[in-house]
Each structure stands twice: as structure tokens, then as C-alpha cells.
Design a protein that fits this description.
5 strands; three-stranded mixed β-sheet; mainly alpha; 392 residues; single chain
Length: 392
């Protein structure tokens, strides 16, 4: 998109209501891109200036709710002889894990609450209720993904090293199993996230050696061991004769969390209309160009306020990629201004309901299991970004 030493560069565009097929592509001049960057910087600065008691109380209440759900859920699972109560306990524990991982863990580890200067909300020391060590996740997600968003060959979140999620990924027969791999990743998502930083595909290809990942493996072993001990030994043992049903309940709660987090994350990154870029296109990009890449490389999910909380406000993935260190509960108020800027500059604002977005994600998973020659390609031009001032 941005790195080729030419006056301008065409970007891929995938159809949306705002850009019907056949319409001339949007052209952003060098000056427009820089102005867009300035306006987004100002929007961020205005939001930072408002941070205070409202944000502090919000995260306190979320933590209080999460802890209450966990306590209630674990207590109700000690009553398996009352099936409705036991099922409610599994659900409550599953919801508490979702809140812990998404609205609390993910957002705290992005540094969204570092300004509070409280140990419990410090991104450097926070640990979450999942098998992936926080420090490894921050490397693979905060650094690798948010720095190199949707750059093929750099952002390993494109397919997580096991899926084909972009036409630019070279097809081979392995990808015939794309839907199966996606289902397994969804089911065991916390484990997939844990293994992500190993770069197992590079180990298989000989690009990375096992001795390079020994420190990572030690960290994974320690964290996963604690999680397994907590969910599948200690709490079941505390339930006495209901050990087995408590294990089953904890498996169910973790499964609920895995299915939900996978779905929200994939809806924000892989539905129709989300674009990818090459390393050459993004070399030496400016702040404004970085913003444009984030806007074109992510998608939102429409829903109720409760839905947004349950998604960790990652239902506002566009705003999250623009401002990853702002408290996520601020994204709903930022979204109208971001959308207005997209309209002002002729950029797509990819948004839709949950079933629309997840349907397009799974459609892409099945489609990309096959070679491009059998499925055809999406339209290729919709946005042209001028890299530098063109001499008059």
C-alpha cells in the first residue's frame, strides 16, 4: 500500500454498499492522508484529556462483575444434582472468563489503564485467566499484530500460521483442511493463542530452531500448568464427590470463552472487505498512512451495549486498531467521528451485524481452502493512496 517508491499506489478494494462495483476508486492525495492523520491524532488527544473518574469507575465495575460471576458460577457448579443450577453455573463461569480475557485482560495489557497507576491495572504485570502467558501475548499481539497489521508475511495473525485467510497466501493441498483447522482453532482457541508465539510453521520450515523457543516453552509450561491445576484439579477437588462434574463444567466454561473470543476476533479481522498489504507497500509509511492501513484492515460488529461489553469492545475493531491504548469503553463514542472521517475521505467503514460478519468469515475460510484458480478473485482496486507530493 504505502512503501513503493512511486507517486501513488493502488490498494485492493472489496465491495461494499459505499463503493459499488464499477465506481471510480477513491484517490487520497499526499496532503489528504497527512490531514487525516492530524484529525485522528486530535481525536485521540481530546479523548485522552477526558480520561478520569468515569473510566476508573467503569473498569472497577467490570472487575467487580467478573469476580461476582466467577464466584457464583463456581458455587453453582457444586450443585450438579440440580441440573438447571449447574448449567447456570457453567454459563456464569464462562461469561466471567470472557470478561476477564476481553474487557479486562486484553484491554489492560494494551496499557489502556496504565494512567491510573494502580498495580492491578498495570499492563506490565497483569496476568489473565488463560493458558497463554501475558508477556508472550503482548509480543505476538501488541507488537507484531498491531505494528504490522494485515501485512502478509509480517502479521502472523493472518491465519495464525495454520489457516489460509488471504488470497495472497500461496495455496497448497494442506489448505484443503482449512475449515477443519478453523474449527479446531475455535474449539481450543486459548491453546492456539498460547502456541502462536512459537511460530510453529517456521520451525517446521526450518526457519526457526527449537533452541530458540526453549524460553517460550518454559513460560508456556508454567502458565498452562497453573491453569490446568486450577481448573481441573484444585476446584474439582474442592467439590468433593462432584469432582467429575466440576471438571466437565470447567471444560464447558472454557469452551464458551474459546468459541466467543474466536468469533469476535475473526469478525474484526477477516470478514469480506478487510484488506491486506505487502511489506513493500508499507515500507516507511507515515503516521497518516498507518492510520489508513488500520482503517482498511479491520471491521466492526454492530450490537447492543451489552454485546459491546461482552466483546471487550472489540466489536469496534476499527477504533481499536486506530487507538489501541485508549480505554475500549470509549470506542462507541469515538465510532461516529471515525465513521464521519471515513465518509469525508471516501474510505470504507466496514461494519455489520454479528451473523453477517461471522458468515462472511466462514465463507472465506471455505473459499480459501481451494486455489484461486477455482474460486476467482475479489475486485482489486478501490483506494489509491498518493505516497508523496507529485511535482507540478
Amino acid at each position: 500500500m504505502f512503501g513503493i517508491p512511486l507517486p501513488s499506489l493502488s490498494l485492493p478494494f472489496f465491495g461494499s454498499a459505499e463503493k459499488p462495483e464499477g465506481l471510480a476508486p477513491t484517490v487520497l492525495s499526499y496532503e489528504q492522508v497527512q490531514e487525516l492523520g492530524r484529525e485522528l491524532d486530535e481525536l485521540r488527544a481530546r479523548t485522552v484529556a477526558k480520561l478520569g473518574d468515569e473510566d476508573r469507575e467503569y473498569i472497577y465495575n467490570i472487575v467487580k462483575t467478573q469476580r461476582g460471576l466467577e464466584i457464583a458460577g463456581r458455587a453453582m457448579m457444586y450443585l450438579p444434582f440440580l441440573p438447571p443450577v449447574w448449567l447456570a453455573g457453567v454459563g456464569a463461569l464462562g461469561v466471567s472468563k470472557i470478561l476477564d480475557n476481553m474487557e479486562i485482560g486484553h484491554n489492560v495489557m494494551h496499557g489502556q489503564y496504565d494512567w491510573m497507576r494502580e498495580p492491578g491495572f498495570n499492563s506490565q504485570v497483569f496476568e489473565w485467566d488463560t493458558v497463554c502467558p501475558a508477556d508472550q501475548w503482548k509480543h505476538s499481539h501488541n507488537y507484531m499484530h498491531h505494528t504490522f497489521t494485515n501485512i502478509v508475511g509480517k502479521d502472523r495473525d493472518i491465519g495464525y500460521g495454520i489457516l489460509r485467510m488471504d488470497e495472497g497466501q500461496k495455496w497448497n493441498p494442506y489448505y484443503l483442511g482449512n475449515p477443519v483447522y478453523a474449527f479446531l482453532l475455535m474449539t481450543f482457541f486459548e491453546w492456539g493463542v498460547m502456541l502462536h508465539d512459537l511460530e510453529s510453521e517456521n520451525i517446521i520450515q526450518g526457519k526457526r530452531k527449537w533452541h530458540d523457543v526453549k524460553p517460550l516453552l518454559k513460560g508456556m509450561w508454567r502458565k498452562a500448568g497453573r491453569q490446568v491445576l486450577k481448573d481441573y484439579v484444585i476446584f474439582p477437588a474442592l467439590s468433593g464427590p462432584f469432582f467429575v462434574t466440576t471438571v466437565v463444567g470447567n471444560v464447558g466454561a472454557n469452551l464458551i470463552r474459546n468459541l466467543w473470543t474466536y468469533s469476535i476476533i475473526f469478525c474484526g479481522h477477516f470478514p469480506t472487505g478487510v484488506q491486506t498489504f505487502t511489506e513493500e507497500e508499507t515500507a516507511d509509511e507515515s503516521r497518516g498512512e498507518w492510520y489508513v492501513r488500520q482503517m482498511l484492515g479491520s471491521a466492526n460488529i454492530e450490537g447492543s451495549p451489552l454485546f459491546h461489553i461482552m466483546s471487550g469492545n472489540l466489536s469496534h475493531q476499527i477504533e481499536h486498531h486506530l487507538f489501541p491504548d485508549l480505554p475500549a469503553h470509549r470506542y462507541p463514542e469515538l465510532a461516529p467521528e471515525v465513521k464521519a472521517l471515513c465518509e469525508k475521505y471516501g474510505l470504507p467503514y466496514n461494519t455489520g451485524g454479528f451473523f453477517k460478519q461471522i458468515g462472511s468469515v466462514w465463507g472465506k475460510i471455505f473459499k480459501l481452502a481451494l486455489p484461486n484458480s477455482l474460486t476467482g478473485s475479489e475486485p482489486t482496486v478501490g483506494v489509491i493512496v498518493e505516497r508523496k507530493k507529485v511535482a507540478a
